[in-house]
Every structure is written in C-alpha cells, then in structure tokens.
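Structure (tokenized):
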C-alpha cells in the first residue's frame, strides 16, 4: 500500500510540474542568493523549458517505478533538495535536486555499484561543465542521498576468519 501511495504522489507531482510549464515568470520561484524563503520549497516545481521539465519528470518516474520507493523517501528528498546551500546569483529551478537525492538513496540497492557510481559521477561532472546546469545542486543532493541511504541501509562488515 505504501508503495502505491508513494507512486501516486510521484504521479501527482509530475502532473503538477507539467501543468506549471504554463507559468511565464519562472524566475519569481527560483532559488538564488537573496531569494525569498518560500522559493526553497517552490523551485522544484518550475522549469525553464519543456525539455528540462520532461527530463526531470522522466527521471523521477523512472526512480519511483524502478525502486521500492516510500513516502518517507519522497519527503526526505524534498527536504534535502529544499535546503541546498545557495552560493550563486544565477536563478535555479527544477526537479533534479529531488531526483539526485533519490538516486543517491537507492544507490545501495543497485547490483553493479562501481558502474552506477561511475555513471553518476560522470553525469554530475558533465552537469558542472554545461553552463546552464547547476551541477553543485546535483552534487550536494547526490551526496545527501548517499548519506540518507547509508542511514537506511547500513554497511554490514564481514569478518574474515583466519585459517590456522
């Protein structure tokens, strides 16, 4: 039941984000140094273009329907992405912060961890090189997701038995 509720929340958020593409004044809801406090909770829902929106919605839906996502995962991702440190003057909007928290959180459940983390590192680095992408938010949110995932799935150390 929890899984279905979380997926319904993700579907509702995705629909709302797509509907909000009609808003013209996206910068009024962006986060940047000196923005209104309410913007920390609103910037996720606004996007600068339809392509930006569809990429973020696709990622969110892919994570929600691939992994056993819970409502608590969505709430933690939203809070982590909302309180990202703001160190820039360029307005930032988009759902990618929440996506990266979730990608970091579920990284402990993937089978090929080295491949997964290498892909994510390359993706974050590429985002830092593209001028219109805020790679710092992606990095912060991915690390926050990794820490959250570590709390949920602690590492189990195996003792090696020495043969005598």
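Design, position by position:
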């Amino acid at each position: 039941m929890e899984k279905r509720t979380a997926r319904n929340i993700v579907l509702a958020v995705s629909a709302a984000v797509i509907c909000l593409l009609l808003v013209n004044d996206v910068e009024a809801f962006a986060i940047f140094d000196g923005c209104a406090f309410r913007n920390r909770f609103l910037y996720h829902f606004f996007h600068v273009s339809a392509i930006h929106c569809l990429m973020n919605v696709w990622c969110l839906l892919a994570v929600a329907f691939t992994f056993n996502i819970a409502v608590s995962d969505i709430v933690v991702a939203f809070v982590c992405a909302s309180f990202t440190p703001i160190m820039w003057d360029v307005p930032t909007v988009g759902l990618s912060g929440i996506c990266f928290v979730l990608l970091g959180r579920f990284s402990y459940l993937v089978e090929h961890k080295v491949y997964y983390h290498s892909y994510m590192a390359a993706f974050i680095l590429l985002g830092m090189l593209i001028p219109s992408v805020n790679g710092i938010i992606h990095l912060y949110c991915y690390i926050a997701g990794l820490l959250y995932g570590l709390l949920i799935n602690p590492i189990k150390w195996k003792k090696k038995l020495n043969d005598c």
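Reviewer-requested clarification: The helical segments are 2-19, 39-42, 50-66, 71-82, 96-105, 113-129, 135-152. Residues 73 and 102 are 7 Å apart (CA to CA).
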